[in-house]
Amino acid sequence: MRFLRNITRNPEGLIGLLILVLIAGAGIAAPFLFPKDPLSIVGAPLTPPFVNPAWPLGTDSLGRDVLAGLFHGARVSLAVGISAAAAALFIGAVMGTLAGFAGGLIDEALMRVTDAFQIVPSFLLALAFVSTIGASIPVVILAIALGAWADPARLTRAQVLSIRERDYVASARTIGMHPLEIAFRQILPNALPPVLALAAIIVAAAILTEAALSFLGLGDPNVVTWGSMIAQGRNVLRSAAYLSIIPGIALLLTVLGVYLLAEGINKALAAQVKTP
């Protein structure tokens, strides 16, 4: 609770937390407020916002409720962002720990694999992966994670290299603890805090990548996403710009909220370190 108070004392942290709570609340409430399929046609197409109270944000070119799509799209964006970040951090932490603790040829081999993934732009890797395997939410999450794990891996390796020679690690070796147990139970927990600081950047990048893939038609066609909503609105941009502007604002606010919350967390951590 004290840490949460420290976050909310910073304007960035408070604003970011409020934005993400509102968006997460919209995603959680979506099945209750809009129980019908958001892809179903509910009325006349291209109804402008604030004209019909049944559809406060209007309808799209097919007659689907924009507000329902916005709420359901929040679920997809947050789920993809958090899941992809968790997968990337997991892969990166495992690879970095093995490389840093083992050293030698294993370290060299794993770092060359990391270099190979780091050379390829993450969006192009995700684009190629989804195009090859097929569009679905799990595939999109895995594709984004494959393009994002290299940085956590390098940071984890650097942390492990600085920790593995400490006295408590030597003591664990002396009592005969298994090397993998030493690596993942003794060293990794102490190496993780700096790595977790990358989570906000990965979440924001994952949300944008998912939106870009959906915009290009490579998202899951069975769910509503903000990227697909923006893409569908571009065909009627002159006559119904709201179809692209509304999900675009939602996307912008989500990414902004993630970055502001991350900034608030960093300031709270810095204040906690300074506090005796």
Layout of helices and strands:
Blueprint: H1 2-9, H2 11-33, H3 66-102, H4 104-119, H5 122-133, H6 137-146, H7 150-163, H8 167-174, H9 179-196, H10 199-215, H11 226-233, H12 242-274
Can you give keywords for this protein?
single chain, mainly alpha, 276 residues, 12 helices
Question: Which structural class fits the helix and strand makeup?
Answer: mainly alpha
- Termini separation (Å)? 18 Å
Number of helices: 12
Question: Which band does the percent of strand residues land in?
Answer: under 5%
Proportion of helical residues: over 70%
What does this structure look like?
The chain has helices at 2-9, 11-33, 66-102, 104-119, 122-133, 137-146, 150-163, 167-174, 179-196, 199-215, 226-233, 242-274. The chain has 276 residues and is mostly helical. The chain is elongated and about 75 Å long. The two termini are 18 Å apart. 41% of the residues are buried.
